[in-house]
Amino acid sequence: MRSLQGRVAIVVGASGSIGSATTRALAIRGATLVLAALPDAALDALCDEIRSSGRDVLAVPTDITRRADIDRLVATALERFGRIDILANIAGIGSSPSLCDASDDMLRTVVEINLLGAARLMHAVLPSMKAQRSGAIVNVGSVAGEAGVMGIYSGSKFGLRGLSDSVRREVRSFGIGVSLVEPGFVRSPMNPAHGERLPGPEIVADAILGAIAHPRRASIVPWTYRIPVMLVKLFPGLTDLVFGDARIQERLNRDAREQKEPQCSEPSS
What we know:
This protein is α/β, with parallel strands linked by helices. It has one domain (about 10-260): Rossmann fold (3-Layer(aba) Sandwich). The protein is about 50% helix and about 15% strand. It is built from nine helices and seven strands; from the N terminus they run E-H-E-H-E-H-E-H-E-H-E-H-E-H-H-H. Strands 3-2-1-4-5-6-7 form a seven-stranded parallel beta sheet, sandwiched between helices. Strand 6 (about 175-185), helix 6 and strand 7 form a beta-alpha-beta unit. Helix 1 crosses helix 6 (about 200-215), helix 3 (about 65-80) runs parallel beside helix 4 and helix 4 (about 105-130) packs parallel to helix 5 (about 150-170). The longest helix has 29 residues, at about 105-130. The termini are far apart.
């Protein structure tokens, strides 16, 4: 893709595996970076790494469940650099595949981060993007937002898919692209059971950069997930039969239930 020299990018969830891979990829292409994540050593270390490569970077510790933090992030970026060209909404949190296994606090937190956080971030950056009549927003969803098999996590990612569609149509006439990248399983702390067998987070970072250069409705990575997603859409009844099987549900939830006792009762088999 073309150089991003002179373009200002906010990366939300920058200290995570996908966020840090995306940050490095943007830095290589010359973008000026504003890194947002909860305050921790990983955010500071990433900022130091990017700065040592000669790129202009600013770390803004941010809790995206707090609107005041989001507004401060955007105001700081505008005050420091005068514009915002790119928003990469990468921050996210997983949940148990079973709705019954989630506490009420977990239900609220997943929606606040995965859906409401992304909505608030777009709401905060769009006035400046509309004023400059350009911009690129990339939201990171999940293939679980195409197939409802992961409890409240799927619900939040389904919502993000609908929100991305709606906002894309709302701001298209202002020259702003809104894209959705939907990863399957990639190597990250969210998927520890798979070890090194999964593709690295760089595959998602590459898709994010591709969507910045050429905005698109949605991009599924790795490409092998496109086939099961297509089958889910073509044969929803068959999907219900497969994932409604008690044995499949047990396999989906087994690892999560080893970590935590269920919080609501299930019918006996």
